[in-house]
Amino acid sequence: MKVVTPFEVADCNTELLRAGVPCRVHLTDACGAQSLWLEAEKERLDEAHAVIVEFFEKKGAKPRFDETGAYFTLQ
Predict the structure, then answer these.
(1) What is the largest distance, in Å, between two alpha-carbon atoms of the chain?
(2) Which end of the chain is more exposed for a tag (fewer CB within 10 A), N or C?
(3) Domains: count for the chain
(4) What is the pLDDT, as a whole number, of residue 47?
(5) What does the alpha-carbon distance between residue 52 and residue 37 come to, in Å, rounded to a whole number?
């Protein structure tokens, strides 16, 4: 699992704003495991996923979204 910093999460949120996607990524970090979740309207999740995947793949990580599309981890 790739470790992400709060600064990278902030940069990802900036990219979402630049792309015009009204969404925010939040980081949960507990006991050595991280997960991220999206604050977004369900109808906008696909747009958010595209920006998030592009952002983190540039950093060598691959987002893995759960079945709801609102939670993910980085591989």
Answers:
(1) 34
(2) C
(3) 1
(4) 97
(5) 11
Closest by CA position to 41, among listed 61, 21, 55, 58? 21
Q: Are 61 and 74 in contact (CB under 8 A)?
A: yes
Q: What are phi and psi of 21, to 5 degrees?
A: -100, 115
In this predicted structure, what is the pLDDT of residue 73? Answer: 94
Q: Looking at the domain assignment, is residue 1 inside a domain?
A: no
In a domain, 39, yes or no: yes
Give the 3-state secondary structure of residue 37.
Answer: strand
Q: Write the DSSP symbol of residue 44.
A: G
Structure tokens at 67: 């079945």
Cα(73)–Cα(11) distance, rounded to whole angstroms?
Answer: 17
Query: Residue 5 in 3-state DSSP?
Result: coil
